[in-house]
Amino acid sequence: MNVSEAASVWIDTHCHLDAPEFAHDRSLLRESARQLGVAHCIIPAVAAANFDTVRLLAHAERDSYCLGLHPLFVAQSSEQDLVQLDAQLALHRHDPRLVAVGEIGLDFFVPELNHGPLRERQEHFFSQQLKLAKKHGLPVVLHVRRSVDRVLKYLRAEGRGGHVWSGIAHAFNGSEVQALQFIALGFRLGFGGAVTFERASQLRHLAQTLPLQALVLETDAPDIPPHWLYATAQQREFGAAQGRNVPGELPRIAAVTAELRGISTAALAQANRANACLALPGLAALLV
Question: How confident is the model at residue 199 (pLDDT cuts 50, 70, 90)?
Answer without folding.
Answer: very high
